[in-house]
Amino acid sequence: MSRLKVLRSVASASAIAAVALAGPAMAKVEGDTIILGSALSLTGKYSTNGKHAQNGYELAVKRINEMGGVKVGGKSYKLKIKYYDDESTPARGAQLAERLIQQDGVKFMLGPYSSGLTKAIAPVTEKYKIPMIEAEGASRSLFTQGYRYLFAVLSTSEQYLAGAIQLAAEIAEKNGRKASNIKIAMAFENDPFSLDVRAGVIEDAKKYGMKIVVDDKLPRDLSDMSATLTKVKALKPDLLVVSGHSKGAATAARQVKEMRVMTPMVAVTHCEAAQVTAKFPDAVEGWLCPTQWAETLSYSDEYFGSAADYDKLFKQTYSSYKSVPYQAAQASAAVLVWKDAFERANSFDTEKVRDAIAATDMMTFYGRIKFSERGNNIAKPMVLRQIQNGKYVVVAPSKWASHPVVYPRKILY
Amino acid sequence: MPVFTLSLVAQFMSDNISLLVLAPALNVQLILDGIMIGAIFALAAYGLALVWGVMNVKNLAQGDFVIMGGYVGVLMSENGIHPILALPVAIVLMFGFGWLIYRIIIVRVIERDLFTSLLATFGLALVIQQLLNLIFGSDVRTAESGFGTLYILGGLVTIAEIKLVSLGLAALLAIMIVAFMKLSRMGQSIRATAQNARAARIMGIDTDRVYAFTYALNAAICGAAGVLISMIWVIQPFFGISYSIRSFVIVTAAGLGNLPGVILAALGLGVAEQFSGFIIGAEFQQATVVSLLLLVLIIRQLQMRRHRKVVI
Which residues partner with A371 through β-bridges? Predict the structure, then answer.
């Protein structure tokens, strides 16, 4: 009896030990499935965009699996993503990254949504030397920390509105004015992302010697920028730039019209997310809106075909979408990079895979992807679209432009 | 670099002040905007003063009630109904909601100490935020009034008609509330309870019912403010806190049971926010609100010191 008990406990103990040992080692690849891990904002204030990212991840996983999966060592593997909900809070995101790596044994990570969350999670993946390909954290400061295991497929935030400054300079010179005579009014939300956007604008404005006449930082819960716009009206700048996520775009749209701001050139981030063309069509005609990606661009790859094909497939798969947010497209691109890197590394060794990611140079429907030493994608430009007759058309950079820019913008109010 | 930035800020500040001197019309713009917005703050603040004064509950969910009302406006606007018609709907719905919340939560904490009611209403605020986020998503929403803009002083000063309409509606609501408090039986009961709850009970006033009504009335007033906000600014599930803070600042400055004081403080706050946004920059608007609170508290403290006697 007592012997049986001993035997039984030995057996169960060794079973536990076996699970414990095998667990982490096997969890990254279970049978014929490669497990990627991601903490995403499925609830909380980023939930809308978190959901976009998740749909983008899932669509790419589905497509890759349909097309035969990932081939490593002559064997085909399917991809699968393990998600946790970080509730849009950085501290929770960092905890969940620990959990994915420590408890679930995940060896390959996909990014969370937003720069703030990525900032919280990157130190964790770095500590455990787990490579992470992220698609939703654009802040430049993510790539000045010397992280070795962090890679981003999107353009960094300082490029968001820098294109508008260049465009303003080009237009001025074409009209026989000096670029250095251009006056700029800036209104940026006081958050890491928008402050990066601002840094990019200031850098380019300095390069041309332009004058900054308004430099307001908007609060995080911004819903009124009439004081800023009163200044804009008085100082009559040539260019107004605004960045404050969708609340900034919506507030600017509403109040620019209300206060009759006549600035000939207006550049604003997150126009699409704020649905300004549907809600404030008169106010936003002629606005310049930067985007990471647009379905009209002539990028293409073997998985999704062209950008337009991706757009079509996405809408078919998720019928609730009327247009495809770039947050989803870049999430899909991140998964494509994983597939490509696994196959080139031909191994699941994290170091080998990490080196393969670092050596990535591929064309995707989302644009070309090639990482700098620091891990950001330097091969894909930010695209500037102008709202013309209520539709977004690409006007810069000139290589991808489908329409000439309308300057001064047509004012419908 | 910080020195450079600081001098840049100082440069902007002095430029902005000279701008106000050179173009006096800008002052008119800022004052008008401030007053019209302040009128809406006054509504939410008066609701808070009511609950605070009558029930001694400091309602941290004040701003979230405002946002709830805002979503009523947004929903109706998105379904093709003019958001001004959402005003009575929001008032009725939020009154019911307030009554429910009183019966479920507030009634349990009203006799407890300060921290219990603070924690309970703070928790309520969090729950409301997350529920709104689940239902409506985190994107900003707006209700479209379809009104235009008036241009005065040669187009230099613009007045959004909706702000003017809101100012009128806020004033109308304030008058209705005052009349209700003075003339109706329930209004008198509320005032009696505020003066001395125990005495009111002895006189046969059902104070529990008075409390429920007061809390519900507060929610209704907030809901009305929210509808106006949704037509003027933008709303988002997590924007409530700034309205809560403003309400607290206004009530602290004005004191309880002082409707003219609340209105004056609210209008003043609205104007102060606009000027600080213009001169120092929008990032300091909230800081202005809090610094004003600090200033008020210091002045109060000094005033009271004179009346205090040293006891040895």
Answer: A377
Cβ-contact B60, B118 below 8 angstroms: yes
Q: What is the ipTM, given to two decimal places? A: 0.84
Domains defined for chain A, CATH in brackets: 28-155+296-370 (3.40.50.2300), 159-291+383-396 (3.40.50.2300)
Q: Which of residues 29-88 of B touch A (CB under 8 A)?
A: 29-30, 33, 37
Contact across the interface for A234 and B23, Cβ inside 8 Å:
yes
Q: Which residues contact A304 (CB under 8 A, 6 or more apart)?
A: A63, A310, A313, A332, A364, A365
Are B44 and B219 contacting, i.e. CB atoms less than 8 angstroms apart?
no
CA distances from B133 to B109, B126, B160 (A): 27, 11, 29
H-helix segments, A209-273: 226-235, 245-258
Mean pLDDT of A217-230: 88
Are B37 and A227 an interchain contact pair (Cβ–Cβ within 8 Å)?
no
Does domain B27-305 correspond to CATH entry 1.10.357?
no
DSSP per residue, A116-130: HHHHHHHHHHHHTT-
Q: Do B283 and A260 touch (CB under 8 A)?
A: no
Helix (H) or strand (E) holding A94: helix A90-102
Strand partners for B1: none
| A89 in contact with chain B, both atoms CB, cutoff 8 A | no
Cβ–Cβ pairs < 8 A, chains A and B: 118
pLDDT digits 0-9 by tens, A233-257: 999 999 999 999 889 999 999 999 9
Q: Do A45 and B238 touch (CB under 8 A)?
A: yes
List the domain boundaries for chain B.
27-305
Residues of B in contact with A275 (CB under 8 A): 139
Give the gap in angstroms from C-alpha B147 to the nearest C-alpha of chain A: 9
pLDDT of residue A24: 41
Mean pLDDT by 10 residues, chain B (312 residues): 59 80 85 93 93 91 96 94 94 97 93 89 95 88 88 83 93 93 94 92 94 96 96 92 92 84 93 90 82 86 74 52
User: Tokens at residue A353, please?
Assistant: 């895979």
